[in-house]
Design goal:
Elements lengths: L16 H5 L2 E3 L2 E3 L8 E2 L3 E2 L7 H5 L15 H4 L1 E7 L6 E7 L10 H12 L4 E5 L6 E4 L1 H10 L2 H27 L13
Parallel strand pairs: 6-7
Antiparallel strand pairs: 1-2, 3-4, 5-6, 7-8
The structure holds iron/sulfur cluster (SF4) (2 copies).
Length: about 190
C-alpha cells in the first residue's frame, strides 16, 4: 500500500508509538505488535536510523500525512492511525489504535471529525482493540454512515462507543476462554 507523502516539516519528535504497536515481519526485523522494538529508545526514536529495515523506511502513521493538529501526535493523543487496506483490498483506509487502552481517546473532537469526514468520503475506517491473537477490529463505515449523513453527532458518538464496547467484550471473552484452556470460541466471528 503506497502511502501519501508525509507533511513537509512534520517529524515524529519524541513519539515512538508505532515502534511498539505495529507488528513487523521483515527479513531485517521481526517483532510482534504491542512489543517495543529492540532498537527503540524511549522518547528519542530509533537507534538505527541510518540503516532502517525496509518496513520502517516505508511506513508512517496517518498523523504524519493528514491535516491534524500537533496535539494529535500519537504519543500525545493516545490515538495512532495505522494506514491499512479496506475490506475489499482495493481501497486504502485507516485503523484506529487506542494507545494505553485509553478508551476516552476515541471521543476527541478532532478524531471524531476526521472519522466522520473519512466515512463521508468513502474511506474505510476500522476500530481495533486487543493485541496479537486476541486482536479484533470492526469496520466502522456501514454502522456509522447513517448518523454521519444525518449530521447526528450524539448518535455517531454512541455508535462508536457501542462498537468499541463490543470489541472490548469480545477480547475479554477470548482472554477468559484462553485462560480456561477452552477451544470453544466465545466471541462472535471477526468483523471487518
Ligand atoms: S506513530 Fe507516527 S508519529 Fe509516532 S513514531 Fe510512528 S510514524 Fe512517527
Ligand atoms: S527499527 Fe527503528 S524505526 Fe523500526 S521499529 Fe525498530 S525502533 Fe522503530
Amino acid at each position: 500500500m503506497r502511502l501519501p507523502d508525509p507533511t513537509p516539516g512534520r517529524g515524529c519528535g519524541a513519539c515512538t508509538a508505532c515502534c511498539v504497536e505495529i507488528a513487523i515481519d521483515d527479513p531485517e526485523l521481526q517483532k510482534p505488535d504491542h512489543v517495543a522494538c529492540m532498537h527503540m529508545r524511549e522518547g528519542q526514536g530509533c537507534a538505527i536510523h541510518d540503516r532502517l529495515p525496509k518496513t520502517c523506511r516505508n511506513w508512517y502513521c496517518g498523523w504524519r500525512f493528514l491535516t491534524l493538529s500537533d496535539a494529535m501526535r500519537p504519543d500525545l493523543s493516545h490515538v495512532m492511525l495505522s494506514p491499512e487496506m479496506g475490506p475489499s483490498g482495493d481501497k486504502g483506509g485507516l485503523r484506529i489504535v487506542l494507545l494505553d487502552e485509553n478508551r476516552a481517546a476515541l471521543e476527541q473532537g478532532e478524531l471524531l471529525d476526521l472519522i466522520a469526514k473519512c466515512i463521508g468520503g468513502g474511506i474505510p475506517i476500522f476500530l481495533s482493540w486487543g493485541h496479537a491473537a486476541m486482536a479484533k477490529r470492526v469496520l466502522v463505515n456501514p454502522v456509522a454512515a447513517e448518523a454521519v449523513a444525518a449530521g447526528d453527532k450524539p448518535r455517531f458518538v454512541a455508535v462508536l462507543r457501542d462498537l468499541l464496547a463490543g470489541l472490548v467484550q469480545q477480547v475479554a471473552m477470548d482472554v477468559i476462554a484462553a485462560q480456561n484452556g477452552s477451544t470453544a470460541t466465545l466471541s462472535g466471528p471477526r468483523q471487518s
